[in-house]
Amino acid sequence: MTRLGDLERAVMDVLWDTVPAASDGVTVREVADALAGRELAYTTVMTVLDRLAGKDMVRREREGRAWRYRAAASREAYIAQIMLDALDLGGSRDAALVRFARSVTGTEADVLRAALAAEAGMASADGPGDGAALTDRVDAPPADRATRPGRADEAAER
Questions:
Q1: How far, in Å, CA of 10 to CA of 57, rounded?
Q2: DSSP string for residues in 66-118
Q3: Which listed residue, 11, 76, 128, 134, has the most CB atoms within 10 A of its CB?
Q4: How far is it, in rounded angstroms, from Cα 12 to Cα 6?
């Protein structure tokens, strides 16, 4: 998963905060206007959006001579993938998960318990689960799902 720089994050925040998933997206000018407080040149915003498209973080469609941009996945899917990537950094995934679980608030622990219970319920209804089904439902970009272990069958279908 691609880590975002400060400007890339600001542009993605505009897309995540202002572009509904069902929308056709926004133009470079609309993103630049939303970032007016940063006093960025139009070409700078255009370059950042182009690079984000190259990283599969945004989708773009041609509209006349311009492009319309929208996020390829939700902010939550992006954050979930960063967390999964962090677990792959080495050492013991189990130890890292236990340490993380001990660091969350009571409310956050309740959310995790509910998500795990829902996953367990789906696994028993659909057969044995591999733990990936819950994260797949969070709109993870297709390229990210295809690179995770056990997802070669999904990649082959595309």
A1: 13
A2: EEEEEESS-HHHHHHHHHHHHHTTSS-HHHHHHHHHHHS-HHHHHHHHHHHHH
A3: 11
A4: 10
Query: Residue 85 in contact with residue 95, Cβ under 8 Å?
Result: no
Q: What is the pLDDT of residue 141?
A: 38
Q: What does the pLDDT look like over 129-148, one tens digit per residue?
A: 444 444 443 443 333 333 33
Tokens linked to 107: 């409310």
Burial class (CB in 10 A: 0-12, 13-18, 19+), 37: exposed
pLDDT at residue 46 greater than cutoff 80: yes
Structure tokens at 104: 């969350």
**What is the average pLDDT value for the chain, to the nearest integer?**
79
Nearest Cα to Cα of residue 77 among 151, 143, 11: 143
Q: For the residues 35-51, what does the mean pLDDT come to? A: 95
Q: How far apart are CA 59 and CA 116, in angstroms?
A: 31
Mapped onto helix, strand or coil, the DSSP state of residue 62 is strand
**Residue 20 DSSP label:** -
